[in-house]
Amino acid sequence: MSDEITPQEPEAEEDAFAPRAEVLAAIRAALDADDRAALNAALDDLHAADIADILEQAGPEDRRRFVALWGDDFDGEVLVELDERVRDEVTGLLANDVLVDAVKELDTDDQVYLVEDLDPPERDAVLSQLDAADRIALEQSLDYEEETAGRLMQRSVVTAPLHWTVGEVIDFMRASTDLPDDFYEVIIIDPAVHPIGTVALGRIMSHPRATPLSEIMNEDFRTLRVTDEQEDVAYAFNQYNLVSAPVVDGEGRLVGVITIDDAMEVLEDEAEEDMKLLAGIGDETLSDRVLSIAKARFPWLAVNMVNAIIAALVISQFEDNIQAIVALAVLMPIVASMGGNAGTQTLTVAVRALATRDLTSANASRIFMRETAVGLINGAGFAIIAGVVSFVWFGNPLLSVVLGVAMIVNMLVAGMFGILVPLVIEKAGADPALASGTFVTTVTDVVGFFSFLGLAGIVLL
Amino acid sequence: MSDEITPQEPEAEEDAFAPRAEVLAAIRAALDADDRAALNAALDDLHAADIADILEQAGPEDRRRFVALWGDDFDGEVLVELDERVRDEVTGLLANDVLVDAVKELDTDDQVYLVEDLDPPERDAVLSQLDAADRIALEQSLDYEEETAGRLMQRSVVTAPLHWTVGEVIDFMRASTDLPDDFYEVIIIDPAVHPIGTVALGRIMSHPRATPLSEIMNEDFRTLRVTDEQEDVAYAFNQYNLVSAPVVDGEGRLVGVITIDDAMEVLEDEAEEDMKLLAGIGDETLSDRVLSIAKARFPWLAVNMVNAIIAALVISQFEDNIQAIVALAVLMPIVASMGGNAGTQTLTVAVRALATRDLTSANASRIFMRETAVGLINGAGFAIIAGVVSFVWFGNPLLSVVLGVAMIVNMLVAGMFGILVPLVIEKAGADPALASGTFVTTVTDVVGFFSFLGLAGIVLL
């Protein structure tokens, strides 16, 4: 928290949250003039997250000049806000002592977040220059698995023994010199460091000094374990409206605390990950380079290629039918496309509901029945529409019937597989968003082409 | 915050956050025995969000029996956690006085959230039975536009004048009887009720009583305006790691405060909305009924049907080519499918980056160039693979060349339109996730079929 006097001016702009054009122009001018004071002045009003955004959106050459000019003043918070590729680039440009100073300023959870992604030589350089206590604590955090509560947590925790009063905890806080930057509750611990209650700061402040903490503490709180996966952590915060939660080790001893801002970031990341997996994108960021993006997307496209070849193989079984009635080739993508779309709708609902734990074994069979019914109803609707369109177009009533029946079959199958595929993948212990899109589209392509072309062969030839 | 003595037992289960099977069994037994005490006992340890989940996942008949049995004990927090359709059902089942009591218990932001969705008769019943002051305040909140900061905010704010000391603010809080449940900072206001600073509670508590608030307040804070859209609010919390933020009216006067838990929910909702829009799903929840779901998805499928018919029209222009070389019908879906997939990849990245404001006018042209290059590179890669596959399959080198060229063209176009379409939709002031999927697939289908079948006509016939 800063005590600088930078008065807050209410702004009537369209988007008050984006860095303004003047700021960008001032930074540009400072870079061009190689004027460090001017750069610092331009950055003065900006939040670290905005500076990080500016760096991410700049070209590599501007980034290099920016880092060179800002130099020793580089703010560790900016590193925390950068996405991984740009951060790698920037930490590579920073002198080791600047990097160490930047890391030292940070809260312990941010230190872990930053150091875990550093290249081994930089990581060792940073670790070796920290105080022994900080270094050991940081190394302990890094011993926890990635993407667990142990990695997310802040190790500095404000605790109090059960026998303290409101006055004692306030006196303790007044005497402390190393309180964390952000904390919202005091955790009450027993002599064996097990958390036994929490007291929100607002609750402490609204009671007289003599009040024992045991009288105002909340005993119905939730603890997280260091081994909890970060998506479970985010779920708990979201589900139970937590603001902070104690983290305990295998013996139930308090080892840290996770605050809602970290949980919010995980929640956002997990939703983004699902959205990307559904679209066949892996772990890429906007600032990645052309070749690494092309390479990252290639495997997903390759899986789709296999799917497309399977669909082509199905079509090739019916070459004679197409040769006889070329209208089949014209109409067949309609059946496949509608099935694919209906399947994707169901699939997305299912993946999302699994992520938010709204789809569970308690209602899976009811949701399956519902999606099947939805597929049937919309299948029937579009069977009629497609039948009418094809009759107007080709004037062949039997062809319209074949198209309609294939449509119903494919949209019914789309609804069923749209829900079954993610359920099965989840049951198998994998992320239901992963590759389920390709599975479902393969099914709807194969069923769509097979039912339409096969039925046409029986009815029309 | 509850003071009940319900000791926290560390659980070693696979999923410590989901209600356990025993709880569900106990609720079931209580319903079957019509035993209200047993039901209350079963629900005692559960968070309102868990009870809401159980209600959502139950069938309508169980839900009715649950509400009838729980009756007067119904917890208003559970209503807040329910999704809209089930909440409508439940409020319809509750007696008006139970509903009013449930609403009275809530914080003002939750009251607004609940009352805004009530049917007019229920809404009037609730409003008429609130205290005049509460009613007027609630009606004022409802005057703000939906999905704005004015609707999200909590109206009870803990404020202090600039001349107060730490001791005075603590004394004030000790004397207050109506402090909000959750607050993390005190907002310093001038005599005209303009916010001029904030002080985190932890900061107040760690300073001696005599410290003036002006010495420890943070003047570099962010204010929100009542008219700010909720997605901008969520963005500000996420970007600037806010925990709470003052909300001001048109004259810059403090009217409320928004806390991070509300922002987190909005962030989650907005990400979910984008994910669903990309898949062609509107505003449906898992507990909606079959017919309303089928109806909600119908328009999206209809748009896709139009797209599919346009693609069919393109194919029909080349019926003669297909009649002459039926392999064209077999291979053509491969070109369309790969283009559609590559386009969806780019589109999803673009929609997400626009939502997180990582894609701006500062880097749009560079990202466009990059996506074009990625399309070209992967297009070339899959042109070779598809060419080899088709040569092995059909033994026609010219056909392979045609397939390869069409693949490159379509994947290049996919990359370009995958980024252009959402940018244009955003520029036009609409949600870039809306319908952009269909636009892009229409383009890749048309370009895919046209380039492959058209080129085949020129080269092979």
TrEMBL record, chains A, B:
Superkingdom in the source lineage: Bacteria
Signal peptide start-end: none
Domain named CBS: residues: 217-273
Membrane topology value: Multi-pass membrane protein
Entry keywords, A to Z: CBS domain, Cell membrane, Magnesium, Membrane, Metal-binding, Transmembrane, Transmembrane helix, Transport
Biological role: Acts as a magnesium transporter.
Name the record gives this protein: Magnesium transporter MgtE
Organism: Oceanomicrobium pacificus
Upper classification of the organism: Bacteria, Pseudomonadati, Pseudomonadota, Alphaproteobacteria, Rhodobacterales
Gene: mgtE
